[in-house]
Design brief:
The complex is a heterodimer of chains A (827) and B (218). Chain A is of the alpha+beta class and 827 residues long. Chain A has 5 domains: 169 residues, Beta-Lactamase (2-Layer Sandwich); 104 residues, Beta-Lactamase, CATH 3.30.450; 117 residues, PAS domain (Beta-Lactamase, 2-Layer Sandwich); 259 residues, Beta-Lactamase (2-Layer Sandwich); 145 residues, Histidine kinase-like ATPase, C-terminal domain (Heat Shock Protein 90, 2-Layer Sandwich), CATH 3.30.565. Helices cover 48% and strands 24% of the residues of chain A. In chain A, the strands form 5 sheets. In chain A, strands 18-17-16-21-20-19 form a 6-stranded antiparallel sheet. In chain A, strands 2-1-5-4-3 form a 5-stranded antiparallel sheet. In chain A, helix 24 packs antiparallel against helix 26. Chain A is elongated. By secondary structure, chain B is α/β, with parallel strands linked by helices. Helix content of chain B is 52%, strand content 14%. In chain B, helix 7 packs across helix 9 and helix 7 crosses helix 10. Chain B starts with a strand and ends in a 7-residue tail after the last helix. In chain B, 35% of the residues are buried. Classes of the chains: A alpha+beta (827), B alpha/beta (218). At the A-B interface, helix 18, helix 21, helix 22, helix 23 and strand 22 of A face helix 4, helix 6, helix 8 and helix 9 of B.
């Protein structure tokens, strides 16, 4: 049986049946062979009658067996000719035994089997037994399948003398097998894995799709426990595989999703149907399972789930809520986000139209209702903005869109829509509009500043341009004059033609207090003038004009407070933080522009001064040349003529030589004095030979002699030499200063101070004379003394300070840096 | 009585000739050398070692004042007489300071020059009239008298700021106190420190203590 089982590839159950058959068949065949060999052995033997009788009875018994057995018996000789067939064998083939005698079995074989015959017969000749399916053709042409079992018949000498075979008709079984094969192939065409197990759970069937799905070949898994092969995982709420199995064993079907595992270890979700398999008697003999891969469906489900999540998330992030309103039943469904937009907890109550309207801002309620009604009636899309009052009393602006949904018959059944909180957007839009407007005006202001020429026109341009940005009725640009402790009010902008204020105001204590704040860059905000000191005239004046509040904005140019922008309004606390910010911005532009304009004016003025100085220098040079020419010609020339005459006389008339020579000597002395004087007037040699101090002392002596003005020299640390150009400059500055004193100061005394530090040489010329206004003098094109000093100082990168007030004397101080590099004169 | 040996130094040939003519009329004088260029004078004097050098103040190459200094250093036995057209005390003082023994004006007469050589040769100082020791003393006094304190150069505003700054107030505080902009304060402070030759706040405070602007004990 074991051997047989090894040869078959059919199912166990089929094997079991065959086994039972063979168990009975094989001993018969063995016995028969033994009997046959006894019969065919024709050796002469001597036997007794009794023995003969026994033998005859035995032979009858065997013959009876042979003729009555259900198996066919077929014997051939060594030449493959039929020597015996029993009745059953002949019947199986539809012949009589007589018809078959002497013929070769070959004649009865199916054509497809004939090739095999030679090989099998050869096996018999060699004494081998053989079992095989014998496919024959019956006399009526139909096919007979027989299981045959051939044994060789050998003589006593071991010679092959024939073979005998036992045949069982298996035609019917073959047909069943073919049918089963068809069914099995049928299952292979199913697009799902079909797996059958026996009652113990071992795999007995594994279709082609199962091979593809699980990666196992049927041959690999046959007989193995199914749970081990498919390695089912428990997923979620599914029962364990064991539970499923036990459920199926009690006759229940189980349908559900399981995570299965492929041969390569990868897992996949599967939809599984498990059902019991019953035999004819109704006993559960196994289980059949059908499984299919639902990965794609799972993924689709997950995608769906994810997109739902995303939608909710997106609603939350965009602050967009969605609603659905059944216009027939009046049911209203709000998404979580709508509840949040209304300041409520998600799904805090069952939304309804009435509750919605209640939360709409009272002023907007009518409009909202009308809009919705219209949309419903006209079946038109809904799009509108409205305000709500949130649970926390905050007013929010919402925007809602909606569309009517119709049924198949075209009747409106519901509205779907979204709602979004656009409060921030609205605010941003508003702020953006304001900001854009502000930028535009500031830009215009900057353009106007560029076009303006003077500080006055700049201030005017600014004050008139920024009016739309700030709620003022009067605006002033005030410039501080620190030295004079006054404020100059440059321009007034008057929206209501208010009375013009004075142009120049003294800095009082109150203003000083404000200025101190302004110096720190702070805006002085006077939110109610009625609280201020009524004794200050300008405040009183503003109040009588109806001014109630104002602010002073610092004009800081590169950190220096040059003045303030003063804005006044007719209401209390007219300016808010936004206004202050704008005012700051305006003031910053204004301050820099005004500072630049005044610097520009200074440069222009300096250029004009320089030009007139150049002219003056040429004039001075010409005048000096004229003087020199006159001196040489009129004075020295005269002396030389006289000298020539004297020497001619002494040469021509010896008698008069002595007095003539005496005259000549006195002319020469006069000439020497004149030349020395001329030379010293041009430039004292002493300045080069001995330095500044002796040269100045010499100059003072001459100066006092000429002007009767006493000069007191005070000096510190100048008992040394400096660079020639510095000594020259210092000398000339003192000279010019003293000349000015002699011309204008109307005094009898002057003080000259000279001192040096490691870095500078300073000269100071002071008098207690009548003084003057330096601004006026410096601005006067016809007066060059001070400007000449100033230019000389600037050339050495020094500085000149003219300190004078009418009636208060004058003090001119020049500081000359010792290590200055000369400004290149020409490039 | 040994003759007084002389060297003449003047860039004008005619002047040297005139001088030689004048001096050689005196029997006790012996002119032993002449120099026409400033740079030749010192080597010549060192070689000839005359008793007296008659030296023009204005020499090309090296001026008379500097030659005097070098001669006094390298040849201390030679007395120097400066010949000059400058009658200003400043020149005289400088010449004497450099070691000259006599100062004779070029416009002086014959007797004046001879007397100068005589006086100098015996070790006395000689100045030709109208120069005198008194006028020199008056000049020196004038120079010395002029010395003054730098503090005087400060303006009233600068003095205020010096005081307040020395007391330890910041620019902003000073500005608030004086009702001027802090930028103005900075400018004044920079100016006054430059005038006084001060560079740091520490130097400013030391100066204030030294001047008695700040009391030493609090």
């Amino acid at each position: 049986m074991d051997r047989f089982k090894m040869k078959t590839e059919s199912s166990d159950r089929i094997v079991a049946r065959k086994g039972q058959q063979r168990e009975t068949a094989t001993p018969q065949a063995d016995n028969l062979a033994m009997v046959s060999s006894t019969i065919l052995d024709e050796e002469p033997i001597t036997i007794t009658r009794r023995e003969l009788e026994q033998l005859q009875q035995e032979a009858i018994r065997y013959r009876t067996i042979v003729e009555t057995t259900h198996e066919g018996i077929w014997q051939v000789d060594a030449n493959y000719r039929t020597t015996f067939v029993n009745a059953r064998m002949a019947e199986m083939l539809g012949y009589t035994p007589a018809e078959m005698m002497g013929r070769s079995p070959h004649d009865f074989l199916s054509p497809s089997q004939r090739a095999e015959r030679e090989r099998r017969f050869a096996e018999r000749r060699q004494g081998q037994r053989g079992t095989f399916d014998f496919r024959c053709r019956r006399k009526d042409g139909t096919e007979l399948w027989a299981l045959s079992n051939f044994s060789p018949i050998m003589s006593a000498q071991g010679e092959f003398i024939g073979a005998i075979g036992m045949f069982t008709d298996i035609t019917e079984r073959k047909q069943v097998e073919a049918h089963l094969n068809f069914q099995a192939r049928l299952l292979d065409t199913v697009g799902q894995a079909v797996i059958a197990t026996d009652a113990k759970g071992s795999i007995i069937y594994w279709n082609q799709f199962a091979e593809a799905l699980y990666g196992w070949a049927a041959s690999e898994v046959m007989g193995r426990p199914m749970l081990e092969v498919t390695a089912v995982e428990i997923c979620g709420e599914s029962p364990t595989p064991t539970e499923i199995l036990s459920r199926v064993c009690t006759g229940q079907r189980w349908v559900g999703e399981l995570i299965m595992r492929r041969r390569d270890g990868s897992a996949f979700p599967a939809l599984v149907t498990n059902a019991p398999v019953y035999d004819e008697t109704g006993i559960i003999v196994g289980m059949i399972g059908v499984s299919s891969d639902i990965t794609e469906r799972k993924q689709a489900e997950q995608r769906l789930h994810k997109s739902e999540m995303l939608l909710a998330e997106a609603e939350k992030m965009a602050h967009i809520g969605s609603w659905e309103w059944n216009t027939v039943t009046g049911d209203l469904i709000w998404s979580n986000e709508i509840y949040r937009i209304f300041g409520l907890a998600p799904q805090e109550f069952q939304a309804n139209h009435h509750a919605f309207l209640e939360r709409v801002h009272p002023d907007d309620r009518e409009f909202v209702q009308a809009t919705i009604d219209t949309s419903c009636q006209e079946c038109e899309p809904l799009a509108y903005e409205f305000r709500i009052i949130r649970a926390d009393a905050a007013i929010r602006v919402l925007q809602s869109w909606g569309a009517v949904v119709f049924n198949e018959t075209g009747e409106p059944i519901k509205m779907l829509g979204t709602v979004q909180d656009i409060t921030e957007r609205k605010q941003t839009e508003q702020a953006l509009r304001q900001y854009t407007e502000r930028l535009r005006i500031l830009h215009e202001m900057d353009q106007a500043i560029l076009a303006a020429q003077s500080p006055e026109s700049i201030a005017e341009a600014v004050l008139y341009r920024i009016a739309p940005l700030l709620p003022y009725v009067r605006a002033t640009v005030a410039l501080f004059d620190w030295e004079a402790q006054k404020i100059d009010l440059m321009v007034s902008y008057n929206r209501n033609n208010l009375e013009i204020m004075e142009k120049r105001v003294a800095i009082d204590d109150f203003l000083l207090q404000q200025i101190r704040e302004l110096q720190l860059g702070k805006v002085c905000y006077l939110d109610d003038l009625s609280y201020l000191d009524a004794t200050i005239p300008w405040i009183t004046k503003l109040r009588t004009q109806g001014i109630r509040s104002g602010m002073l904005v610092p004009l800081l140019a590169h950190g220096e407070l040059i003045g303030s922008l003063n804005l006044w309004a007719k209401v209390v606390a007219a300016f808010d933080a936004g206004h202050i910010e704008v005012a700051h911005e305006v003031a910053d532009s204004l301050a820099v522009a005004m500072k630049q304009a005044s610097l520009h004016q200074q440069v222009v003025e300096a250029n004009q001064r320089l030009q007139s100085i150049s002219r003056r220098l040429v004039e001075v040079q010409e005048a000096e040349r004229r003087n020199l020419a006159r001196e040489l010609h009129d004075e020295i020339g005269q002396d030389l003529t006289a000298l020539k005459l004297a020497s001619e006389i002494s040469a021509r008339e010896p008698a008069q030589a002595k007095p003539a020579l005496g005259q000549a000597q006195s002319i020469v002395n006069q000439l020497m004095a004149r030349v020395r004087e001329l030379s010293l007037n041009l430039r004292p040699a002493m300045l080069d030979d001995l330095g500044l101090l002796p040269a100045l002392l010499w100059h003072f002596k001459r100066y006092t002699a000429q002007t009767h003005i006493e000069v007191e020299l005070k000096h510190a640390d100048i008992d040394k030499r400096f660079e020639p150009e510095i000594e020259t400059a210092a000398y000339r500055i003192v000279q010019e200063g003293l000349t000015n004193i002699a011309r204008h100061a109307e005094t009898a005394k002057a003080i000259v101070r000279l001192w040096s530090t490691a870095e500078t040489l300073c000269v100071q010329v002071q008098d207690d004379g009548k003084g003057f206004s330096p601004q006026e003098v410096l601005a006067d094109d016809t007066r060059f003394g001070l400007r000449g000093m100033s230019e000389r100082t600037l050339l050495l990168q020094g500085s000149l300070v003219v300190d004078s007030v009418p009636g208060g004397g004058t003090c001119v101080t020049a500081e000359l840096p010792l290590k200055a590099t000369l400004i290149p004169q020409a490039i | 009585m040994p003759k007084v040996t002389l060297v003449l130094a003047d860039d004008h040939h005619i002047v040297r000739q005139g001088l030689r003519a004048i001096l050689e009329t005196a029997p006790t004088f012996d002119v032993i050398g002449e120099a026409a260029h400033g740079l030749d004078v010192v080597p010549l004097v060192c070689r000839l070692r005359p008793d007296v050098l008659l030296l023009d103040l204005m020499m090309p190459g090296l001026n008379g004042l500097d030659i005097t200094t070098q001669v006094r250093e390298q040849c201390p036995d030679t007395k120097v007489i400066i010949l000059s057209m400058h009658r200003d005390e400043a020149y005289v003082v400088q010449a004497l300071r450099n070691g000259a023994a006599g100062y004779v004006l070029k416009e002086a007469n014959y007797a004046d020059l001879v007397q100068a050589v005589h006086e100098v040769a015996v070790g006395r100082r000689y100045l030709s009239p109208p120069l005198s020791e008194e006028s020199l003393r008056a000049y020196e006094h004038r120079v010395r008298h002029g010395a003054f304190d730098l503090y005087e150069t400060l303006t009233a505003r600068e003095r205020e700021i010096l005081h307040l700054t020395a007391e330890g107030l910041s620019s902003t505080e000073v500005a608030a106190r004086l009702f001027i902009s802090s930028r103005t304060v900075e400018t004044h402070r920079t100016n006054l420190m430059r005038k006084l030759g001060l560079h740091t706040q520490g130097e400013l405070i030391r100066y204030a203590l030294r001047r008695g602007i700040l009391p030493l004990s609090d």
